[in-house]
Amino acid sequence: MLLTETCRFRLEPSEEQRRVLEELFEAYAGMVRECLEKAIELNATSRKKLHEAVYRELRARFPNYPSHYIYTAITMALAIFKSYRRMSRKKRDVSKPSAKNLNTVLLDDTHLFWFRWGEVRLATHRGHVAIPFKVHEHARKFVDFQVKGSRLVRRGDAFFLHVTFRKTVEEREAEGVLGIDVNERSIDLAIVKPGYVKFVRVDVSEVKYIRDRYFRKRRSIQKKTSGKTRAGLLAKYSERERRRVDALLHRASKIVADIVARERVRPVMEDLRGIRERIDYGRVLNRRLHSMPFRRIQFYIAYKSVERGYRPVYVDPENSSRACPICGAVNKPNGHAYKCGKCGLQADRHQVAAWNLATRHPMWGALPLPPKATEASWAEVERVVIKCRLRDNGLSPSSCRDSPRSSRLSPP
Predict the structure, then answer these.
(1) Which of 98, 142, 254, 348 has the greatest number of C-beta atoms within 10 Å?
(2) What CATH architecture is 176-206+247-408?
(3) What is the pLDDT of residues 386-398, one digit of tens each?
(4) Can you give the residue ranges of every domain in the chain?
(5) Three-class SS of 286-311
(6) CA separation (Å) from 67 to 36, 60, 123, 126?
(7) 328-376 tens-digit pLDDT
(8) Residue 404 and residue 412: Cα distance in Å, rounded?
């Protein structure tokens, strides 16, 4: 089982190295622009076709740059053009793609960079340039991983190296399944093992409060400012919002992955492809739901589970919160409350959804239910609340707490 992760390092170039990087970004953006224009002109999605159309001309225009930059520029241009084609099939009035503000240089070729811990050596038009960087604590877990590719990213005056690491992880044998239902305020879990059902709720409602707070802040900025001031403030607060939301999501997903490892269960999640297109509940509710990072939560849970040896599975979510997990009858929930009109089961609709997702994994057929399956609805629900106090100067580690609580589902 292959585990692939990306880690970001902030480069610390000298003034001379900074000038070299600026020249590299400018030249690379020119390569990508020309490749993209040619791809649009020829309607080319084939690497061979685009390579034959642009390589000689670009090689003549940029003779001092390693030829592999042209190779990766073709890769990036094709990715942009194919994305445009996919979007144009789904929507009308999709503007043609451009690479005017390109701030990325793709280095997915071993001829362009050599990675060492604390230093990266780049092949440039000025020869090989060794640029140092600091190795932060989180990155040390990748020491045993294999480097598979990287990219240079420019943000303002700062330069970053995004490195893709890969490692083969031994897959462990699961003893049960873990249904995972991602909601606006919580991540609901149903641990199903032979003769055993347990529910856990990870409260992530703080994410919604952060989203709402920054939405009001952005709206106020848009009303009161304009021009560069508005753009600068919006960028500042958008980045701050992203950091705070990510911090909470990483904490929540780590809790879920630790449960996966401790209980030795296989994660089962909803297949959320196309969820944005299906959401249409009016302007206010649409904004709330579209702002929730459902897929990002799933991604964090997935790779953290793979790190621990358990591959996630994605299943069809249809009627997951409407079907009764005991008798199979389909009922309409009343808000968060679920009551089955056939067997009388009463429970929280999100925990019902998590249970149903768990039962849709093929392993469920090999797991015997408890003697009285309805007793699962009486089980205690472990609740983990993730809170993080908002401060304008950033997150304080001491202000983030995971506090366990417990509650009970109502019996039928």
Answers:
(1) 348
(2) 2-Layer Sandwich (3.30)
(3) 665 444 334 333 3
(4) 2-168, 176-206+247-408
(5) HHHHHCCCHHHHHHHHHHHHHHCCCC
(6) 17, 10, 10, 14
(7) 888 888 878 888 888 888 888 888 889 889 888 877 665 555 444 445 5
(8) 26
